[in-house]
Amino acid sequence: MEQNKKLWVKLYIWIFFGILFSLAIALMKTSNTFDKSAFFGQQRVYDFKEEEYTRGTDTCIYNPEVNYFVVVSDRAKKSFSRLSTCKNWKYLNMTVENLNLACSEWTIYFSDSKGNLITQYKVGIQNGENVIDLKCPKAFQYIGFKIRDQVGLSFTITSMQLRQTQIIFDGEEVLQETVVTFVLYLFVSMILWMIRKKGLYAPVDFLQGIYKSVGDILGSALDQRLDIWAKNRLRTLLFWFIFTFMTMFGGFGLYTQSKYYKYGILAVTAAIVLIGLLAWEKPLLRVNWRSVLPASWFAFWVYVCVSDFMVSKFYKFTGYVFLFAAGFFFFIWNNMSHPKQIRNNMIHGLELTLPFFTIYCILFRQKKDFVFYNGVFRTREEMAGYALMLFIAFLAELCYCLRSKWMEKRVVWMMLYGIGASVSAYFLYITWTVLALLAAMVVILLFAAYVVKNRKGLVLGILKSAGILLASLACSVLVVVGIHTALRNLPEYLDTDIHYSGETLESGLDEAALAAAKAGTPGLFRGVHSSRGLEKQTVWTNYLRHLNLFGNNGTLTVLGTKTDAQSGYLDIVYRYGLFILIPYLLMLFCCLWHAWKEHGFLMLGTTLAFGILMLAQCIDRPFAQPIWIVFYLGMGIWFGKPDRQAENSIQGR
Prior knowledge:
Number of strands: 14
Structural class: alpha+beta
Number of helices: 21
Largest sheet: 6 strands, antiparallel
Oligomer: single chain
Shape: globular
Helix content: 55-70%
Radius of gyration: 31 Å
């Protein structure tokens, strides 16, 4: 009996503490502040008494029976009593109803304690809540409105407040945040209890239990309806969908709009889960993820989730997508008999985007003289990242072909892969993104080293293999020249050239030369900016000033222009918090180590290129670029293998 009482007391404390804690966090989140003196950091608020905003004057008469004012003079005035406190107020919140005009222009004025005018200016008043920025240079004690030349105007004032910050209490939003926080509190409590009882690996084991149950039920259902060939093709098609959908999603500006962004991420999440289910082969076993890479991966995404919770961001849900959807996909992938099939599906899906996007560019995206090429994207850096990833993929295919036992039957494919690599290199070149070109040079050296190292394993021998590569290069010249000519002329001839709203067009010309070019051919250089713009060091300095524990939302304005961090690493730290670097760099180094140990070309080239681009480009945008997708999803193959002993021990408990 005594033990039950203690249990109920612990349960009461745990739940009641969770409710109060969740309410406090919800208030701080909705006020977007962590003020130590108040949970809901509104700072000071001055509420006007009802008698103040319902008192009429000779020129602005108040009718209490119908509860509205009527202006009866061309020089009407609505004043208020002396303020009881003199503060540096920033906003006036005034709710107006029954205004018989769509918008009425009033003059707001401010006076000191002796009634001397400090300043006045015009404001627009309309039905509903009006938030007026108070541009008074010093503290005031009188405030009022002048209404000129609007005889017959009628309106009702239902509330008035002076504020130092524009933070409004929204009960519904607070309740939603409280419920979400409480659910997370329960989840974290359960995780901590599991860690205390069973060790640090317990949360991973718990997630694998969920992955296993869901995977076996849904995966077996698909397996009964589809053969191996169909599942393989469907996985390739789903990867093609992810690459194509997210590229076009960003190209048409939907990625940067909050109302559409969540739907894009939801579509990608569904595709990843479905790819995982299509990889199911037999009843799943738990996988041994007791290594550094999975540990750093989990730590990174958990930190992302915590940062998103503490500071609301535009790029939401990524941590949850990876912990639950990508983790589920990795778990089934690690259970496959031939896991490299998934990697092949991923690369084949990416390669299939090239003809589609090439035709799209030829028809709708003209290559203009002296303007760097954006292709299907909104910036040249994004196009460079796409072309670079394609270049790596086609070189990886060539590496495979050169050592394949079936090389005699794959000569045509080798020619096509060579053409694909050349077209990718051409697209990369016309973006003229120096860092991407540098990464491509590193990849070429890596390819040369790979071929030299494996020269004894070349199925057709060195001379014949070199001859096929040269023949492929000769065909590539014809294809690239044709694409280049079409890009320059066909969109103009068909009058189908598309200019994305808000895209960044850059030229290598300096400001003076670009101004002269715009004056000579304004249509050609409309919206084009010089690439010799803001100094990266200035941008980095501004972002470094804003580093904190849980990150920030939004993009900083540097020298009057909204500018991203100009560095992927700095962007991650700015967005998620300083300590995110610990698991992130560890994860990156682990990927390099595994790629090197694997002796393969694809992931080593991808990881090196990704690390180089991150130095001075913000490419770490969730699912926005193919190289991001291949890097973050491709590492799953290294997580581990099924642990039959661990599975048996779980079943025996």
